[in-house]
């Protein structure tokens, strides 16, 4: 009895094999517009296609290239059934919209390239559900905005390339769901970072934000961004850094501010709970010296070099503040003045600080009308009063910050 069952099972197996062999022997399916190099590699380039020929493609296809056709719309589940697909190129198409879950049902897809297209928006859930994707190339498109949750669920993405796009705005939660990304680079010209725009972005090797042109960095911009090897904000106009800009940014190994222009820093606070290890502040032009109690760095290492500050009456606050890390000597040797004009570009230590009067508001904090005392108020009987008053204020500030 048992042996009979085994025998019949064996026969069934043989029949399956024979069937498989005849299938291979019969002409494989291949859309007429395409070249099927093999049952795993299909090229449909410049084929004049208006529809994705999913039904005609071999179900075994692993590499599929559909460049330079006419696909204005990539609809939801557009490739469903191609479960073996690993690499997909849609370059050079006039794609104007990718519908939500367009690439659903492609569990093995590793790499997708949509470049040189007319795509203007990376819409919500466009790339959602690609659990196994490791690289998405989206450069040289006309992408103006990335909507929230565009990449939801693409948990294995390592590389996302968005360079050479006219992105002006990054919306809240745009990268939510991305984790373990090795490298994320943005195009130049970003003009608005919405609050929480990096929220849900977890474990990024290198996140570079460069060539931005921001009027401000607002409250909550970096909230929810966590576990970043290097976060580098560089070569940008950051405008005004508003209170709360770095609130909720946590576990950053290296946070760099390199070669930016900053109109003013209303607040820049890094608390111990944020676990920021190293902060490098280098080559920036800061047009307004921040108030002494508006900056705070509870970090392992703070490097402040080659920056330019106005050497006006606020310079005293700067030298007494946390940016110098108690080494005024080093700080003034390695940072530069923007103003007064004759000191522009010269190291701070060439300046005689005693000759610069203190600002009125440092004396009487409530008096905000007269912001700048003429920098010419050198040694007069007034400065004695200023010095004593500021020392008192300083002591008070330090107590507030828990520095004493
Ligand atoms: C895409 O190209 C096809 C063929 O040239 C054209 O009919 C279609 O209108 C184009 N779609 C868009 C959105 O440009
Ligand atoms: C992801 O890809 C690997 C091979 O690269 C494969 O073993 C695994 O099954 C894939 N995951 C899914 C969900 O198919
Ligand atoms: C930032 O906004 C949150 C609410 O979204 C608020 O709780 C917090 O106090 C704000 N922080 C600052 C510094 O304004
Ligand atoms: C400040 O300088 C001291 C040595 O001069 C250094 O050990 C310390 O780490 C520095 N603090 C910061 C926050 O960089
Ligand atoms: C400082 O003020 C005096 C007159 O009080 C003037 O002669 C001198 O030019 C001023 N210096 C600067 C650098 O403005
Ligand atoms: C210094 O004090 C004297 C007398 O108290 C006063 O007349 C004079 O105007 C003061 N000078 C300045 C520059 O404030």
UniProtKB/TrEMBL annotation:
Signal peptide per UniProt: 1-20
PROSITE patterns documented for this protein: LRR
Entry coiled-coil feature ranges: none
Domain of life of the organism encoding this protein: Eukaryota
Keywords associated with the record: Leucine-rich repeat, Repeat, Signal
Alphabetized Gene3D superfamilies for the sequence: Ribonuclease Inhibitor (3.80.10.10)
Record-linked InterPro entries: Leu-rich_rpt (IPR001611), Leu-rich_rpt_typical-subtyp (IPR003591), LRR_5 (IPR026906), LRR_dom_sf (IPR032675), LRR_TM_domain-containing (IPR050541)
Keyword Repeat included in the entry's annotation: yes
Protein name, UniProt field: Slit homolog 3 protein-like
Native source organism of the sequence: Nicrophorus vespilloides
Annotated gene: LOC108560289
